[in-house]
Amino acid sequence: MTQLPTFSRRLLHPRYWLTWLGIGLLWLVVLLPYPVLYRLGRVMGHVAMRFMKRRSRIAYRNLELSFPQMSADERHQMVVKNFESVGLGLLETGMAWFWPTWRINRWFDVSGTEYIKAVQSQGRGVLLIGIHFLTLELGARVFGIHNPGIGVYRPNDNPLLDWLQTWGRMRSNKSMIDRKDLKGMVRALKNAEVIWYAPDHDYGPRSSVFVPLFAVEQAATTTGTWMLAKMSKACVVPFVPRRKPDGKGYEMIILEPECNPPLENAEETARWMNGVVERCIMMAPEQYMWLHRRFKTRPEGMPSRY
After folding, report:
1. For residue range 186-203, what is the model confidence (pLDDT) as tens digits?
2. Which of 174, 199, 202, 245 lies 20 to 30 Å from 288, alpha-carbon distance?
3. Could you tell me which residues are beta bridge partners of residue 235?
4. What's the burial of 65, exposed, middle or buried (CB within 10 Å: 0-12/13-18/19+)?
């Protein structure tokens, strides 16, 4: 199992004081009532859009590539809503890490937990597909409250943030596994654990195949889903944490399991997985992380899309 970061006195070094100040400010802000946080997050998103010009261009380009039928005005409205979601996502990270369980439950409706119990009752693992919505951290916290599992993560380069994100995620989950620890993931799945896994980003040319995603014919897609499902015989279960309109809270929707996904080869599985990802994104498209350069990896010799 991955060696998780622990708190040590070195995290109190002056080089981390500015980070501690930011953490303290986030903790204080998320003490505010949720309706206030909802309005504040949207305002923060509008401010961020004015300064994050590069990320704004990436979001526009991703939408242009994915939905060429979308008009320029529709794309603009989607990007504005997406940046509102970015501002909310920052506050939701603080909510996920610092809110008590009773306060989380007050604002969340959850459906589909019976699917997880049904799979585990058969002695099979759950490969939980949690794609990169901007509600990511809060969704993982809520899922863990109802079905504690094991998260797959990339260690943060900042030791203080690495410890903090691990501490926050461990409030409602069993453990964390480095995304490079394939053996650890397979072992956990064979033990009928829940492994939270995100196959929707562009992780580079290594261990990727090119398959369609929305209107993009050649989207670099990880082969990790194929390897994990094939080696562990786990059921694949997508879930979507999304905001309700007008600051009315959230809902977490666990979708039906697929216990016999297509596993003939990595390309077939990736093609099928991207279909699942598309279905999930379309359940809350404005809340997806369009700011990531999802289509940066190209076949050799092909020009950049950005």
Report:
1. 999 999 999 999 999 999
2. 174
3. 126
4. middle
